[in-house]
Amino acid sequence: MSDLQKNYDDEIDLLNLIETVWNGKWKIALFMIVGIFIAFGYNIIKVNSFIATTEIRPITTFEEDKYLLFNQSLKKIDKGSRYGPKKETSTIFEITDESLLNQYVEEIEEGNLLEVGIEKLKLIKYSFDDQKAYTEKVKKFASEILILKPQNIDGKEKGDKILYHTIKGEYSDIKKWKELLVFIDVEINKKVKDIITNRFETIMSVQKQNRDFEIEDLNTQIANIKQDYEETMKNKVAFLVEQASIARKLDIKKNIIQPQTVINTTDLAMTNLKIEGNPFYLRGYEAIEEEIRLIDTRKNKTAFMPDLFKLEELKRDLEQDKTLQRANDLFANTPIKQDAFKATSVNISATDYDGSNKSILYYILAIILSGMIGIFYVLIANSFANRKKTIVTS
Asked: Which is more confidently placed, 29 or 86?
């Protein structure tokens, strides 16, 4: 056979092949329809998942400035002696973007709200048959939702630096995942708000209690000083009455002690009732009785209590201190006392979903593969039919 004849026969065979495929187009189409149904069933059974990443950013500088006045109102406490000069100060309460962020992240990591949200929004199908197994699935799913902290190294997946905290989890339904993020954000903001409010109220209660205790201690010291004065004067008058009686008995009207002798009446009890070796009644009953009269008729007794003024000054300062009241007023004006309070800035709509739904790809592959199978079937069937005809004719 010549080469030309061979090429002609090959061309005839190719045309026959195309004609065979065309004639079996409905059978091929039937295979493709079956393939589509198989892909449809697979997509129902096989759920495509994605990795969702949501950034948790601190509040803006503008929002943080709203806490500035409050932070200055009650952020230092005296660490020195109770009534002495200040020696050391330290911060006891301050609301910053960092403290709010840390509290927010801590509540997510704690996990309870995640589990509540997963159950409430039915992210996992509930099983009435095995409650324990369902609870374990919820806990496992919640534990797989990660809170990634900022890193100074390149991330493994995209090569970008992680600049903010992120919530990262895997799921299959974008709508339900968004609902979970919204639930978490709303509930954690409420919880952070309650925690900070309770912490502030506790600090206010402790500070008020400490102040009340200090005032109570000062009142006790003041009362003791006054009582000590009364007892001292009572003893002194009793001593002076006795000395005056002796002076009258001896008819010592005037002071007969030598002028150069210094008389110290302040420390009478310490001198064993003597003044520079001389009995006190030698001063004369006129002076002694006059001193008794002055003590009995004394109206301004506080002038003779040298430590009293300092204690009353400290008590007055504590009673007039408006620090706690001002802190309460300023706290009431912070965003924490507002309904729209936000501990962080979370843009849920900007969540990154890595891994799109592959159902369309499955349909395309099903059409291609089923079409190829259909063509192969038509060609094989046609080949067997031609062979059968050849056998019959021969």
From this structure: 29
